[in-house]
Amino acid sequence: MRTRLGIKIHSFLERRFPERRVFLKSDSDTRFIRLRSETQLFAALGLAALVAWSIVATAIVLMDSIGSGNFREQAKRDQSTYRARLNALSEERDDRAAEALAAQERFNAALLQISVMQSELLASETRRRELETGIEVIQTTLRETMSERETARSALAALEQETAADTASHRRAASAPVQMQFMADALAETAAERDQIEADARSALDERDDLRLELRLMDERNDQIFRQLEEAMEISVEPLDKMFRSAGMPTDRILEQVRRGYSGQGGPLTPLALSTRGEEPSPEELRANKLLQQMDKLNLYRLAAQQAPFSTPVNLNTVRFTSGFGLRRHPITGGRRMHNGVDYAGRHGTDIFATADGVVTFAGWQSGYGKLVTIQHAFGIETKYAHNTNIRVKVGQRVSRGDHIADMGNTGRSTGTHLHYEVRVNGKPVNPLIYIKAARNVF
Predict the structure, then answer these.
(1) What is the pTM of this model?
(2) Which of 143, 305, 357, 412 makes a 20 to 30 Å CA pair with 111?
(3) Could you state, in order of their start, the residue ranges of all structural domains in the chain?
(4) Is 236 strand, coil or helix?
């Protein structure tokens, strides 16, 4: 069986690859090499394999070259897109900074307007009380004048009756011309006094009407001032309230903590004094006290905002944002680790500012952080400024928002000049951008 199969295979190869002889001739001898069918088959297969390998290798090289070109083009396109995105973010940052500056100017203008309107309101309230006192005096005088007029009329009627009786008796007696003259003079004087009293009463009534008109106009003016103050307070308080709520800070607890900083008076503004005679307060007094409470709330918000990190630690026009809060690939070890703050890269020596009022609790070298500044603020908030090249504050020093506290550097575990900025609440790290973004449309 094997022999027949071998014979068939050999016959098939003979037909496809007939036996060939290659003659090699020299000057003195002639030789030949016989190429059997099997040898020719193996040679053909080897040649085909070589050609196939050459084709595949050439194709791989070409594809790699084309792919590398595509990758380079894609990298260039990605780089161009990234640059365009960075430019757009830079423009958006500039727009937000301009909006924040405009909002700050509107806020200052509103505070100035509130101060002016409060002064006008207090002045108008004083004037209104003076007018009310004047009206009471005029009404008392008018009542006394009308009472005197009635008394004079009664006296005049009595005198007229007495004169009539005396005239009848004088006609009979005709012996008292001096008394008649006296009575006539008394009647004339009484009539003149009555006319004067009536003129004074009319003048008092006219003056009362003028005072009522002036009081009504003053009430309208006060109402307009109240409306403007209420609108200004709503415009001023609402953004601050939204800012604190966006940062996750309970406004009631924050305001109560700031209020306790005063001497038990509820803040720098106190309500208007009400009547001590047991009278119900007027609507204007209630409205004024409500406005003063809102002004007190606005002032407490302003004081609280100074003590929370609602600003950026660097000038955003001179740096770029390089790393956010959360899990990230560690730039040195290469592993994924939690990044407890945000990073801003800039030139060596860039100014670093305090983001809120507080007290410096650490200023020196700390492993990993390099030269570090730590500031303790109100409400259990703490901020950290790391990798500095120079520290400009000392432990125990009280700083205010915007104070220059350090210079940007590359100390500690760092791969380049940058600021590592952290915010911790009761020792727990939180995203600093929560506070920065919350104040974007306020400051």
Answers:
(1) 0.46
(2) 357
(3) 2-77, 107-306, 312-438
(4) helix
